[in-house]
Automatic annotation (TrEMBL):
PROSITE patterns referenced in this protein's UniProt entry, alphabetically: CYTOCHROME_P450
Entries under CDD domains matching the protein: P450_EryK-like (cd11032)
Pfam families: p450
PANTHER family per UniProt: CYTOCHROME P450 YJIB-RELATED, P450, PUTATIVE (EUROFUNG)-RELATED
A molecular-function term among this protein's GO annotations: heme binding
Entry protein name: Cytochrome P450
Keywords: Heme, Iron, Metal-binding, Monooxygenase, Oxidoreductase
Similarity comment: family membership: Belongs to the cytochrome P450 family.
Record organism: Bacillus smithii 7_3_47FAA
Length: 318
């Protein structure tokens, strides 16, 4: 989507999804984080994804959208389906992937359509009600526009934040010096987050459609062609970053593309950063040591553009 339609939608959403509104979620994020880690303490191993990094953003976003607790796990499952790839290169695997994606999209579309219609009749104190009431120059979001935003927020918010938290912990497990440095000085947590977004970006690639013929690097890209921008490669550009293959806590400036760039910069970036900051700070103060469980072989997420692992079991010391 491009201007002027994109500008209108962005302005409408910005009226409710403000930095102030996001910052007001800080205490709730802290409470959910503490509760999840209190439960984890009772176990011998913390399954970083399923016990912590996945439920945290699901709970927060579900509460924002007014989704009842009983649907949260189902929403997470469909969110995963919408970003998953095919099991192999066969036509059968591709068709199965598309079938599952269609089913997931239909469920979420039908559910949010019902919620939107209910909020139109009986507004509540949630993001959907606020977005329905938002107005810029006499215009409001259409139902299909709000539907698209709800699904985008659910899917992008879950996957990005979950993998941002896990990827940051993954690096700290790989480099225990960084883990100890940040634990002793929690003011470095934002640095850890930004360098993780560069070094281990949750989103590896972003698709775009050419709106006109353009020549890049001696190659002509025709109008209407699909283009894949490799964020992960750009984040390791030696012309932009000093020692790009080295994780540097003190890297400044850090113009990574982890949340995109320009007018399409991720709307949910402030929320993802806040959730990651609270989650990692509480995690490091709760546990004195984090290490990957013995005999663990990490298995990548089955996705063409999301960077993460299916499971990340952690052994910890209190």
């Amino acid at each position: 989507m491009d201007p002027p339609k994109h500008t209108k939608m962005r302005n409408l959403i910005n009226k409710t999804f403000t930095p102030k509104a996001v910052n007001e979620l800080s205490q709730r994020i802290q409470d959910v984080t503490t509760s999840l880690l209190d439960q984890a303490k009772e176990k011998e191993t913390l399954e970083m994804i399923h016990d912590f990094a996945a439920p945290l953003p699901v709970i927060i976003i579900a509460e924002l959208l007014g989704v009842p607790a009983k649907y949260r796990e189902l929403f997470k499952n469909y969110s995963d389906i919408l970003v998953s790839g095919a099991e192999d290169d066969s036509d059968e695997a591709f068709n199965m992937m598309m079938k599952r994606r269609r089913e997931g999209a239909k469920f979420l579309n039908d559910y949010f359509k019902e919620i939107i219609q209910e909020r139109q009749k009986n507004p509540k104190d949630d993001l959907i009600s606020l977005l329905l009431a938002a107005e810029v120059d006499g215009e409001r979001l259409k139902e299909e526009e709000l539907l698209g935003f709800c699904i985008l927020l659910l899917v992008a918010g879950n996957e990005t934040t979950t993998n941002l938290i896990v990827n940051a912990v993954r690096y700290m497990v790989e480099d225990t010096n960084t883990q100890e440095t940040v634990r002793k000085n929690l003011s470095l947590v934002p640095n850890l987050i930004e360098e993780t977004l560069r070094f281990y970006p949750p989103i590896q690639a972003i698709g775009r459609t050419a709106t006109a013929d353009v020549e890049i690097g001696g190659h002509t890209i025709r109008k209407g062609s699909q283009v894949i921008s490799w964020v992960a490669a750009a984040n390791r550009d030696e012309q932009k970053f000093e020692q790009p293959d080295r994780f540097m806590l003190e890297r400044h400036p850090n113009p990574h593309l982890g949340f995109g760039y320009g007018i399409h910069f991720c709307l949910g970036a402030p929320l993802a950063r806040l959730e990651a900051k609270v989650a990692l700070s509480v995690l490091l103060t709760t546990f004195s040591k984090l290490e990957l469980a013995k005999h663990t072989e990490l298995e990548p997420i089955q996705s063409p553009f999301v960077f993460g692992v299916k499971s990340f079991p952690i052994q910890f010391s209190l």
